[in-house]
Automatic annotation (TrEMBL):
GO process terms (BP): regulation of DNA-templated transcription
Alphabetic keyword roster: Metal-binding, Nucleus, Zinc, Zinc-finger
Keyword Transmembrane helix among record annotations: no
Summary of the function given for this chain in its UniProt record: Putative transcription activator involved in regulating light control of development.
Family matches, as InterPro entries: FHY3/FAR1, MULE_transposase_dom, Znf_PMZ, Znf_SWIM
Classification via PROSITE patterns: ZF_SWIM (PS50966)
Location relative to the cell: Nucleus
UniProt domain SWIM-type: residue ranges: 233-266
GO MF terms held by the record: zinc ion binding
Principal location class: nucleus
Protein name: Protein FAR1-RELATED SEQUENCE
Length: 354
């Protein structure tokens, strides 16, 4: 089956794949797609809870579910394994074969082991349930593949390109900006409504966090906390930012910690690499050209402001840097003043927006 799948994909294996607890399938994936990260769909695991643990735990069943969910969402592998041991002791599950099996397969379903891999958030129970419910509306054991694809197309209601462009413009107009930050306004023009809403949540939460510059990065923690926090690394020159919480790697959406550091560093646009193509609006070449015409000037000004801010910060660190910056900026400024001022493109953009 894996060989047939790879043949359909021109030999290109997926980055990640979610399956049920079929051990034969697990072995086949390891053999045929060794570079693919295999994980178990947590919804299929959770669906078996009642038959596995209801009778065993009795009145403590709901208490155990809450503790399992807490462990599942932990960030640290060490915390997970210590918590799992305490959970087994607390609920007397030392000899339970399902608990033993789950622990043996923990690297395939527990989030602490999966956060460094991209799953678009689909390993969470909420996403898995919604996807499963959507597919079950028109899929059964008797379904033909062609009929299944037709039913999905009808449900999604694909539109022609003109209608798609109008829908995109309408969605853009309906977006409500909550922070007033240039990064938010920029992301709103690039991301789909769903992806933007997720990023916007993080931008709003970022305002509640403080960032402290360290020798090798930044420490970011909630303003009410005196200890702990997340470690963020930012290389402005290369447009690279990463956080110890691994939210971007896992979901494709930057976390509040990284966004806080970008904001503190006067970054007015989210770096290109952190706006994945899968989360971007689908545009025709004509639509892209129109959007570029309308926003190019503002975006370039914001980018220049960010570069100038970084230039000042870096130059002020030593007398030698300051001398180099002053000399080169003077030369650059003289060259810029020699260039003729042409505002035709800006006027055209303004007239199009009216």
């Amino acid at each position: 089956m894996c060989k047939v799948f790879l043949a359909f994909m021109n030999g290109k294996a997926p980055q990640t794949v979610l399956t049920d607890q079929n051990m034969c399938l697990k072995e086949a994936i390891n053999l045929e797609m060794p570079t693919t990260k295999h994980a178990l769909c947590i919804w299929l695991v959770v669906a078996k809870y009642p038959s596995w643990f209801n009778a065993v735990l009795g009145e403590r069943y709901n208490e155990w579910k809450a503790e399992f969910n807490r462990l599942y969402n932990l960030e640290s592998v060490e915390d997970f394994e210590l918590g799992w041991r305490d959970m087994v002791n607390s609920f007397g599950l030392h000899t339970n074969r399902h608990i033993a099996s789950l622990f043996a397969l923990r690297s395939l379903w527990a989030l602490p082991y999966l956060r460094s891999h991209f799953f678009a958030g689909m390993t969470t129970t909420g996403h898995s349930k919604s996807i499963n419910a959507f597919i079950q509306r028109f899929l059964s054991a008797q379904s033909r593949l062609a009929h299944f694809v037709e039913q999905v197309a009808v449900t999604v209601d694909f539109k022609d390109q003109t209608g798609e462009q109008q829908t995109m413009q309408q969605n853009l107009q309906n977006i409500c900006l909550k922070t007033g930050a240039p990064m938010e306004a920029h992301a709103a023009t690039v991301l789909t409504p769903f992806a933007f809403s997720k990023l916007q949540e993080q931008l709003v939460l970022a305002a509640h966090y403080a960032s402290f510059q360290m020798e090798d990065g930044f420490l970011v923690r909630h303003h009410t906390k005196l200890e702990g926090g997340r470690k963020v690394y930012w290389v402005p020159r290369e447009g690279i930012v990463s956080c110890s919480c691994h939210q971007f790697e896992f979901s494709g959406i930057l976390c509040r910690h990284a966004l806080r550091v970008l904001s503190t560093g006067n970054c007015f646009q989210i770096p290109e690499r952190y706006l994945p193509h899968r989360w971007r609006r689908i545009s025709t070449p004509a639509t892209k050209a129109l959007q570029n015409t309308q926003s190019d000037h503002t975006e370039r000004v914001q980018l220049l402001q960010s570069m100038v801010s970084t230039l000042v910060t870096e130059s002020a660190k030593s007398r030698e840097r300051l001398d180099i910056a002053t000399e080169n900026v003077s030369i650059l400024l003289s060259r810029i003043r020699e260039q003729p001022i042409c505002s035709q493109g800006i006027r055209e953009s303004s007239s199009n927006q009216r």
